Amino acid sequence: MAGERQAWIEAPEVVRLFPTFLWKCRLRPELYGPINESVLKQLEEMHRELPPLERGAAWQSGHGLHTLEPFRGLVSCIGEALDAVLAFLRIGVRDVAITGCWANVNAPGAVHRMHAHPNNFLSGVYYAQVQEGADTINFHDPRAQVAILRPPVTELTAYNTDQFVVTVGVGTLLVFPAWLPHSVDANRSERTRISISFNAMFTAFAETMGRPLWGAP
Ligand SMILES: [Fe+2]
Which class is 23-48+60-142+155-202 in CATH? Predict the structure, then answer.
């Protein structure tokens, strides 16, 4: 009920339950410089045979970029970022494999609607070419129940929002849970936006983790 706060109530402690994490790494320019040169050159070659992207159009490469030599430097950075996340989460099995890695080339006006990456543990994106007007990614609240009642708020905060907008730059590497829905707004710049997405899964999932966690009776 509206009114004065009861005198006996102290400012309540906010207990964070089940926080969702996003790992944001920034590669140093001396590192991302050569990586981007190599990656962008390779993508240019892959895309050369195709017609130029029209306004609002997007092109996605094949899913095996992590197996190609020009992506070796990037794959190494991704591997380190994945290991850091697994260490942060105190996960005992650190042997993960990149199961897919692909480029997203978005012309001005292009959007990427909301989606998640099933059948993997972690996902991520590396930004090789982003600029003002094309430098954000949206993460959406995965708790469907929260949307049932959404009363008006006086201020958007981390505790009442249903979407986080993360700003990225050239050399940013994000890692997040593969189940976390995300989307990309329309490219409002006049230049192409180029990012490299990837998925990672425990290498020996069936052998080491897929079995029941409880013992046989
Ligand atoms: Fe994605």
Answer: mainly beta
